[in-house]
Every structure is written in structure tokens, then in C-alpha cells.
Amino acid sequence: QPEVRLKPATFGSKGIPLCIYCCIAAVCHRFLLCASGDAVHVYSTSTEERVHVLQGHVDLVTGLRLNSSNHLQVYSCSLDGTVKLWDFTDGILIKTYIVGHKIFSLYVSKFHEGTVFIILPMESSAFQLVALHLPKTTGPEVEARDILSVLRDVSPIPKATSFGRGGEFVASASGLQLSVYFFRKQKTYRFSLKANDKKGARNRFTCVASHPNDDCIATGHEDGKIRLWRNFSQKKEYTYSTEHWHHSAVNALHFTPEGTELLSGGVESVLVLWRYGAGSKKDFVPRLGSAIEHISVSPDGSLYCTSHKDNKIVVMKSSRDISAIIQGLVKGETIRTDLLIDPRTKALVCNGKPGHLQFFSLRHDKQLYNLDIVQQEYIHEAGLHQCEVTKAAIDAQGSWLATVEERQENPEELDIILKLWAYDESTQSFHLNTSISMAHEGQISAMCFSGDAEATMLVTTGRDGHFKAWLLADHPDGASWSCDYVGSYHRREPTRCCFSADGSLLAVGFGEVVTVWSPSTWELLVTFSQPPGDIRDLCFGRLSCSKYLLGTTTKNLLCCWNLLTCSLEWSSTVDVILLQPDPLSENMAAFSRASGSTDLFVFKPSEPRPLFSQKAVCSGTVRRAVFAPREEVLEGCDESTQWLSCSRLYFLTEHMVSPGLIICSPDSASLLQLVIDDSVAVTPFYLLLGKHRKSQRETQDSVSSHTAARIQLPQGSPAIRELLHTPAHVLPSASFLCNMFVNSLLISKSGEEMGSEEEEEAEEQESEGEMEASVSAQGPAVQGFQTEPTPQLSKAQERELRKLQKADFSWLSSLLDS
Amino acid sequence: MASYKATRIPSFPRLGEKVTQDTLYWRNYKTPVQIKEFGAVTKIDFSPLSPHNYAVTASTRIHIYGPYSQEPVKSFTRFKDTAYSGTFRSDGQLLVAGSEEALIRLFDVSGRVALREYTGHSKAVHFTDFSADRFHILSGSDDYTCRLWDIPSSAEVSRYSEHTDYVRCGTPSRLNPDVFITGSYDHTVKVFDSRKERSVMTMDHGQPVESVLLFPSEGLLVSAGGRYVKVWDMLKGGQVLVSLKNHHKTVTCLCMSSTGQRLLSGSLDRHVKVYSTTTYKVVHNFDYAASILSIALAPNDDSIIAGMTNGVLSVKHKKHPEDRKMVGGTSRHRPAYRVFVKGKNYMPKQDDFLVRKREKAHLKQYDKELKRFQVSKALDSVLKPHVRLKTPEVTVAVIQELNRRGTLKNALAGRDEKGLSILLSFLIRNVVDSRFAPILLTVAEMVLDIYMKVVGQSAVVDKQILKLQELVEKEIDYQQELMEVLGMMDTLFATMTAKKEAAALQSRAANGLVEVRGGQDQMVKAT
After folding, report:
1. How far apart are the first and last CA of chain B?
2. ipTM
3. B192-221 residues touching A, CB cutoff 8 A
4. Which residue stretches does the UniProt record annotate as biased composition, category Polar residues (chain A) (predicted)?
5. Based on CB atoms within 10 Å of each CB, which residue in A31, A299, B292, B349 is the most buried?
6. Does the distance separating the beta carbons of B1 and A289 come in below 8 Å?
7. How does pLDDT run across A456-496, given as a tens digit for each residue?
8. Would the CB atoms of A816 and B7 count as touching at under 8 Å?
């Protein structure tokens, strides 16, 4: 049958320079080329606009070099084992050379016409630099097998190899060794450094650059030193001089085409321009915003270009004026905030630069702006505790933004600041309205805005066992937020909170209990509990399903409660880690964990079967997800992709560097059914009352009735244990329960029951096997029965018990019914 | 690109009263002029004629002061016993006063001797005033009566003896010459019409009435007595509109601001409260040195005059903007206007290439040092006397920033005796301030760690360290006591709420809880 498989694709392949993997090796006067994912992007250096996307590779593009004989062409190499030649002004693929091995880097030398140098893996996890002769045969695809090894044991990093002085030699650094190969002499010289010296230097090489017309090699080191090597054509009498400005590793080195300046950059985010031959004279371009990863210079030397760790390319003129900034989605160290959608701009909001929130337009693949949350000077230093934005929430109208920033130096000293930002129409940006330090005594675990348009309310839950409601209060000198209510529940720690769509109900998860409050009166309306297992995620249904409340527990249970009847509508044993409602429809996405990968289910709360499900949608655990509305509703979707017609689902995995984007495309895959289990939760009440109820039902439910019939072991039995482990608030007062329970045990013997005893024994043994099979569908509580070793009982005791089994507990249900 | 971000100085919400328009208005008075009278000042009345002299009744005299004079312009001293209620007529020509001798005297403001004496009351007359038609005098007396007198013939026109206790206050209607209102110690306020034999309206204040006041529209009446100020709606037949209880001792006098927007009440608790007449909320409060017996506002609120039981008359004049100009105008010669606009008003032509000067961000001294990572110098710059004494929050913010950067210890270390003593004195001053305590305790610990070796070398430092220790110990004791009190209160609250909750539970047990559990039983089976 036709099935649909969603293809999760990284942002990069959709054309966002999310991951500038390698180098912006090629900068010509007007265009800037950068490799991103499996595509090469061509940008205009003056307008920052993307001109072309060169697509054709099927794996990560690893190298990019301008063709030395034709400056309108560029070579690119990729892990898919091909080298491609492009005309980047028109965006046309000219030729593909098939190598057949993974290519890790690519170099072009002006004096080696018809040859490119590539780095290939060797057999034993080492790499070698080889010369690849490009055959002159015509045709779009050419096999290139003419490979000549140049240097062995090189580093696969593109920065660590450099061609010097008109291609006479090639220098490559790997670990603590610098190798120089002279083409004319066909000889390799190797120079080694010690790993450490007395002063604590770390001499490992990080990058290499060669002077264009002088015999000089510059190398960068881990401790921030730059060494200039000379006279390296001899084995013994080589010299080097050392310059030291960077405080940590030199990430990139580059000579200008005339060789007058050496550019270096590192984590300090300062571009240092060393004057060649003038000792340690240098200029700086400071405050570039983030660590410099690569440096590139245009062939005419008029433009410098730096790529940064926060997914940014800065283009500056040789006069050091910045002319363009191309900014992609900032990859923070860790994205700790939820993924949010700004209702006004439909932009994705999440952690960006340290202490900032970024607003990234998914429609235009462009960063709109960065919002400085922490408002402190960022000091980069190893071991320094930074102030991080850990939570963010935007209200439904997009007029208020709440952020939580946190800095913990040691367990006792915790700094938490809750900030509320108002949207300013005139500046089209958020402005700080209220700053509340130490809003909670512990960390803030969850935060949400109510959907009510008139009176916006913010609820935060903290590790200090309280949840707090914040309201906008009017003051003569401008409105500001203040605490309206502090709530707690039996000193438990709240973990999740969630408002219903109309803002009339607030659900707060306290451990294993869900409490539902009325925000207008702050009255506790109902509590739900599905022990064991703490609440992991909570969420209300939307639109026609707004009467449902969904929760997932840590013990593999997805529950759906009906708020009108205050009962459990359905539940299912799925290990759901994340629930994400679609704001435009009733649909809900649930991510569940399964052996190293994550499964995705989409369902409506009203019916307990998935609309769509897919196994192993990505590897690793999904951390955050968000539905982003589409600009226009997608027409002509088939049934299983209907849920994607008005919004897209974006999600972020645990160790993925880039968020994944779900796009739908038909593909054959097995559909995974959401396992719906038809058993009810086994609570002590069920154990007491279930039997009576069951007998009124059809006998088809024999399995359940047997479980009910097996539960009168007086002590140490699961029933008693269950009774003890159930939260006390779910039970009536102990005196009430105990008294009646004990009374009911005092039923006198009757003769007829003795007679039927043996029959029953046989019956029970029969059903034993049946039960074995059915238990898996019974939910976690029932599974406990199997593992419990049955206590050894004497015959007399057994008889006594069997009698008890016959005892009618209907009194209790009738009591409750009344 | 990103520029240096200045250190953020956290602002703390200011406790206490908020600055409103009213506080600004009522604070705009000069320091009070104190005039000593011979006895308690019972009545102050402004002349309706410019220059608005005022008559002050105190002891056996009535003094008339000019608006800015501290010496009386005129005095009436012919009373044999205490004088009461010296009041100007609406033309400012005549003055009437009652007295302890049961006499009412009428004076010409320019003369000395009484023009007329009205005899008839048998006891002290505490309240006298002119009627709106200027031809009659009203009086209220301790003989429980109030009377109406004809001025030229000094004959009693009518007498009302409905009150059952001393009549101590009253006011004539400004719009109707026949109507007047009296307040008495029998707790009632009565409205009389001279055309009628009996009172036309009676309101029960609930306390001995000390003062009554009519709004300019005369639709509302204010009465003061006991701790209460009550506003009555005359048009609704004397219904109480609002009852104000803002003083904690007897309210003795009432007064209306010139616009009729604000009501002032003075009390024996030494406060004068200003109410808004739209919301009847207290918008401002004046403190005085002694219990207040009388208060008056000059036309246009130009001055506030309060008379007190200790015989002191406090006169506050309004500050005028021209006064300030007088002071500042001559002190410095400023550069001319054209110095500032020089070159600024040049409009660039179409082909001009505009070269802008780069805007220079002005950083504070400590920010400059922090930008250069000069941590000790940054700390030094905020430990200068004018910073650490006037704005300790700046010092603390910089310390916090240093702590965030992990360089606080470096900044604190390496100080000489003088530097250390400055640091310690700052700690002693601020360590118990709840805003600064968390970070300053860390600083104190660090200082002790760093300078442990040099303890005993300097007497000054040793003394300060001992003082700091004493301070911290005292603070710990305070905190402990507070926690104990909090614990006691918690137990009290807990017993209160437990009762309430139990009641609520009982009522809910029947529906709510059972509903939940019943619901779980009815769990729907999904096939």
C-alpha cells in the first residue's frame, strides 16, 4: 500500500547557510562562496543577498577553491567522492570528476596546471595528500583515477595544509610535526616540536599559511603562538621566530596576496593583522562578535573575509571597514530555551549568541535580529560561569516576552533573573519592562503565558516547590509585572505547567500528580494521577479537543484525561518524551524514545489512534520541537500528510548541531501503530470495585476478571502495596476505607461455596497461560503481579482466601454511587 | 559590531510614598516660619480683601498679620478672658469674635475698640460668623444655643436651642443668607433656616463635632469629630457620602483648597492630611511639631498656616519660580546661544560628501577600567568617597561584575592600610543592607582570607575588623529573632487555615474527590 515517509533534512540542504563547514575559500571581488551542507552558496559581497545555490553534491562539501586559470570557475570537493567544477557567476555545473574515495580537502596551485591536490583517507585511519590529474576528456562526468601520492600522514583539516611560493612546496602540519615537500627536489623535510616545555607551552599545530612570494611558513599553535619558519629547505639549519598575541589557540592564518600582511584569528574574536617583516607590529579589528574559524582574502586583496563560530561571515574591506555580514541561524553551545514562534514575525526564537535570543525568519532563511537578554559584557574565559538564558516564552499576541536567565557558580549561589519584555511598535523590537531577581528560590523549571487576550498572565514553576502567577499591574509610572499568587501542592516540586487555550484552566504537574486550577479564583479544581511515574510533559488539547488534557509520565504512559467527566479517556504505553500541540489544528505531535532513535506520532486527543506515525525519525533524543505555521495552506495533501498542510514541524535533537526540518515526501516505510491498551489503570479502587463492575459486563473480558480475582492475598500482595503507593489524596480517609474493608471481611461461611472450590481451581489453572499472554497489554501496574513471587500458603489459608475472593465488594461501589 | 556593554546598575524599587502630582504640589512650600503666640491658636481666618491679611485668635488676643510679616499688623487685646473665633466679614471691614466671657464683640479692622458688644449668651461663645447678607451675626455657645444677631441694633433676631450639648462650630451658607449650619458636642450637625422656627435637617456624626465645612457648591457638607471626617450629601437629605478615618486622634479643623479639589484636615495627632475630593483618598500628609487646632489656606494656596496647642503658628509660603531665578541668575555667566549652534545649522548641499564624526560612547571611569581589564583600578574608582557614600549600589554593582568575571579576589588583594580601611568601612556601612548582603558577605570572607596574615599590624584595621564581626553577629541575632517570630506567625496562620480547609474539604468530599475517582473507574475502553 502507498505509505508516506517523512524525510528529515537538515536546514543546510534547504538552503540556509546553517553550517559553514569548510571554508569560504573563494572570494572574488563581487561574490563570496561558502560551502554549507551539501551545497555551495554564492553571495554578493555588496548586498549580502544570496545569488546562487550550487547544488549537485550528495554529501557534505568539504573544499572549495577558485580555478587558478579561470577566475569565474570554482572547484568543489565533497565526501561523496567527487570533485566538481562550477561556473559560479551563472550557477552552472561544468564538470564532475569522480574519484571514488571520500575527499576531505582540496587545493589548487597555479603552477600545477591540470592538477588538483586532494586529501584522501588511507587504510589505517590516516590521511594522505595526493595530486589528482584531471583528465581532459569531454563530457559532464569523468572518471579521474590518475592519483599520485604527495605527502603521507597529513591532517584532514583543510587549514593545516598550504601551498607556498608559486607552488614550489607544500607545507602540512599534523600534531606536533610540520612536513614540507618540495616538488622540484621531490623531497620531504619534517620538523618536530616538543609537546610541552617548561613554561607550559602547548605546541600542537592548528593551522598553516605560506607566504605567496617568500620562503616563509607561518604556523599557528594551540597556546596562541604564531611561528614564522624560514630556511626550511635544510634539515638542520631551519629557524623560526615566535610571535604571541592570542591567548588561546590560533584558529586561522592567512597571508594577503601581496604578502604584506598576515591575518590571524582565534577565539578572542579579534582579527589581528601582522605586518610582514616588521617584527611584532600589528593592527586589530576587534569585537567581531564570535570566535573566528576561517579567514579568506579575495585574489586582488581588496576584501577580507572571516567566518565565525556563530554561523556568520563578515566581509570587510582592506581599509578594515565592515561591508557586509551574512548571518545564519546561530548555533548556541546548548539550546536550553524552548523553540518558540514569534506570532508577529513568524520567526523562530531560541538561544543564539551567549546571553542573547535570536529571531530567525524561517521564511526568508535570515536572522531578523538578536535580542540582548543578559545585557552584560561577555567575557570569554575557560571555567567562567556565564549567565545563560534558560527559559523563554512569548504570549499569544506577541506583545510580551518572558525570559529567565541563570548563573550558578556553586550550588549555594544561584542567580536567577526573570525578565519581562514589552513589544514596542515604534522600534519593532522588545524592550525590558520588568526585571525580577530571584523570582523563585530554586531553578525555574517551566514557564508559560495564558492565552487570554485581555489579562495576560505568566505562570512560573520553580524547584522550590511553588508555582507563581505574575500579572501586569498598573502604576502611575508605567505598568510593570508583579506576583499575583503563589501556589503549592503538598510540598511537592512542580515540573510542568500549561494553560488551556482560552486561559480558563491551568494545569500544573507536581511529581506524579496533575493539578488543575482556575486562574481567576486560584481554586484547586481537580487532581489527576496515574502512578507510578512523574509527569514529564503536559498539554491541553486545542479547538474541538479542548476538553482533553494530555500528560506523559516517566513510566512510559501517555494519558488523556477528559476535563468534563474528570476521568481518564484513554492511555497508552508509549515512552513519550515530548508533546507538541499544533496551534492551528487539534493535532498533537509526540516524540517517543526507542533504542537510540526517536519515533514520531501525530494524533488527535479525541481518538486514541495516530493519524501518522514514523519510526526512527531521527537518531538521538529529540529535545525541542515546534509547529511553525505555513504562509499558505498546502493543497492536495493525502490523508497521512494532512497534518502538515498548515504548519511545519521543526525539532531539535540532543546532539545534533542543526535543527531538523520535516518535509514530506512519499517513501516506503513501515507504519508503526500507536499501541492502545484497553486496560484501565489498576488502582486499589479498581481492585476493590472492578470485580463487581466486571461481573455486570460481558464475560468476554475474562482476562481482566481473572486478574481481579487473583488479588486477595492479604499481606505483601501487590494490592496492598498498590494501596500504600497510591497518593493519599486519591484515596478517601484511611479510617473510612479501613473500617469498611475490615467489616466486609467478616462474612460468615456458606456451604455452597465450599463445593465449587475444586472446579474453580481447575479453571484458574487453565486461565494461567492466557493471562501470561495478556499481561503485556495490561499496563505497568499489572506487570508487577507477574514478577511478584507468590507467597507460600497453607491449604487452610488458601481456602480462606478463596472464600474471600467470593466476597461481594459491591457494597463499596453502591456506597460510592450513592 | 558589538561595542562594550556598560555595567548594569540594578535599580531597586523605592519603598515609601510614591511621588505624585500632589506631593510635588504640596511640597512646593518654603521652610515654615514659626511665630510664637501667647496661647493655643484656636482660629485663623483670612481676609477676603487683598493683600489677604489673616486674623489669628489665640488666648485673650486677636492678631492680624500681613501676608509676609512676622510681626502683627494689628492686635485686638481688649478681651478679659480667652477669645474665640475671630472671623472677617466678606468685605474685610469687620471682625467678629466670641469669648469665654459669653460676649460677642464686633471690631472695625482699622479701629481698636469694639464697635458693638452682643450680650445674651450665658456661657462661652466658641463660634461666631457673619451671615451671607453681611447684616447678621451667627453665634454658637456652650449654653447649648445658637443665635442670630442684627449687627446695627445688636438685638437678638432668633434663638435656636435644639442642641443638647455645647455648640462649638458652624458655618453660614454663602449662597443663602438665611441658612446656617452648626455642629455640636451632642454628636449632631444641624441645618437651620432663619425663616423657620426649627432646624431643617439633622445629621448624626457619631462623635462630638469639632468642625463643619461647606463645599463651594454647598451640595456637600464636611464634618469632623472624633477620629472621623464625614462627608454628607445635602441634596440627598443628609445622607453620609463617605466616612474617612485617617487620623488617629481627634480631628480639630477642616479647610478647603482654593480650587475646591482638595480637602485638608488637621488633628491632635499632629498631622494634616490632604484628601482628593473626587476619590476621598489621602494624597498628601504634613507633619507638625504639636497638635493642631486650626488650619487655614491663603487664597491661591499661597501659604498654609497652622495653629498649634503650644501656641506656635506655623506659616509656610509657597515657592515661586521667580524666586529661584533671582538666586541662580547672577551666579554664572553662560556662553551665548550662538556658541552651541555654530556650524550645526548648516544644511548639506546635494553633491556634498558628508563626513561624520564618529560618535564617542561616554563610559564611566569604572567601565573604562573594566574594559581594559584593570580590575583593581576599577574597584578603586568606585571606592572613592563620593561614589561609595552617595551611590553604594554602583560600588556593589561593580563588585558583582568583578565577581562574575572571577577576578574579585585579584581586585581586593594588594591594598595598603588606607585602602583596606576604606574597604572595611564600606563593608561595615553596607554589609547588613539586604540589597547588598549576599555579595558583600562574599567580599568580607575574601578580605578576611586575603588579609589574615596582616591582622595585628595595624590598630585601625584591627578595630574595623572587630567592628565588622560585632555587626555580623548582631545581624545574625536579629535574623534569628525574626525567624522565630515568623515561625510563631506560621503556626498561628496554620491553625487558622486548617479550620477553613477542613470545612472546605467536607463540603467537597461529596462531589469533587469522588468524581475523580469515579471517573477513573469509568475509563473508556479503546478497542
Report:
1. 62
2. 0.72
3. none
4. 784-795
5. B292
6. yes
7. 899 999 998 999 999 988 776 678 898 889 988 888 899 99
8. no
Helix (H) or strand (E) holding A84: strand A82-87
Angle of helix A810-817 versus helix A734-744 axis, rounded to 10? 140
- Are A289 and B2 an interchain contact pair (Cβ–Cβ within 8 Å)? yes
Say if A685 is an interface residue toward chain B (CB within 8 Å): yes
DSSP state letter for B12: P
Which set of grid coordinates corresponds to residue A607? Answer: 481518538
Q: Smallest CA–CA separation between B443 and chain A, in Å?
A: 14
Provide the pLDDT for residue A645: 76
Distance of CA A158 to the CA centre of its chain: 28
E strands in B290-392: 292-297, 303-308, 312-317
Query: Is B520 near chain A, with CB under 8 Å?
Result: yes
Q: What whole-number distance in Å separates Cα of residue A366 and Cα of residue A38? A: 19
Nearest Cα residue in chain A from B20:
A476
C-alpha cell at A30: 563581487
Give the DSSP letter of residue A50: E
Shortest CA distance to B177 belongs to which of B48, B55, B87, B89?
A: B89
Q: Is A377–B5 a contact, with Cβ atoms under 8 angstroms apart?
A: yes
Percentage, residues of chain A above pLDDT 70: 77
Chain A 251-280, residues with CB within 8 Å of chain B CB atoms? none
Interface test with A, best of B20, B511, B521 (most A CBs within 10 A): B521
Mean pLDDT of the residues in chain B: 87
Write phi, then psi, for A799 (nearest 5 degrees): -65, -40
Using the structure block, give the residue that is written with the C-alpha cell 597529513: A154
DSSP summary character for residue A700: G
For A5, the grid coordinates are 515517509
* Residue B369 in contact with partner chain A when CB distance is under 8 A: no
- Whether A379 sits inside 8 A of B522 (CB atoms) is no
A736: part of which helix (H) or strand (E)?
helix A734-744
**What pLDDT, in 10s, does the model give residues B52-89?**
899 999 888 999 999 888 889 999 988 889 999 999 99
Our measurement of the distance from residue B332's CA atom to the centroid of its chain's CA atoms, rounded to an integer in Å, reads: 36
> Which residue from A minimizes the CA distance to B404?
A385
pLDDT per position as a tens digit, B217-251: 888 999 999 999 999 998 988 899 999 999 999 99
Other C-beta atoms within 10 Å of B139: how many?
27
Q: Tens digit of pLDDT for each residue in A296-333?
A: 888 888 888 888 887 788 888 888 888 888 887 776 66
Tell me the chain A residues in contact with residue B24 when contact means C-beta distances shorter than 8 Å: none
User: Which helix or strand (DSSP H or E) is residue A208 part of?
Assistant: strand A205-210
Across the interface, whether the CB atoms of B526 and A676 are under 8 A apart is answered yes
pLDDT > 70 in chain B, percent:
91
Task: Tell me how far apart the alpha carbons of residues B398 and B417 are, in angstroms, rounded to a whole number.
Answer: 22
A236 contact B CB<8A: no
* Contact state of B518 with A567 under an 8 Å Cβ cutoff: yes
- 3-state SS, A291-338, equals CEEEEEECCCCCEEEEEECCCEEEEEECCCCEEEEEECCCCCCCCCCC
Strands B251-256 and B262-267: antiparallel
C-alpha cell at A664: 514530506
Minimal C-alpha gap between B208 and chain A (Å): 39
Q: The C-alpha cell of A643 is what?
A: 497534518
**How many other CB atoms are there within 10 angstroms of residue A437's CB atom?**
12
> How far is the C-alpha of A591 from the C-alpha of B119, rounded, in Å?
101
Using the predicted structure, report yes or no on whether residue A675 has a pLDDT greater than 60. Answer: no
Is residue A105 over pLDDT 50?
yes
- Dist CA A803 CA B116 (whole Å): 116
Inspect the interface and report whether the beta carbons of A476 and B20 lie closer than 8 Å. Answer: yes
Is A381 touching B (CB cutoff 8 A)?
A: yes
Sheet of strand B239-244: strand arrangement: B209-214, B220-225, B228-233, B239-244
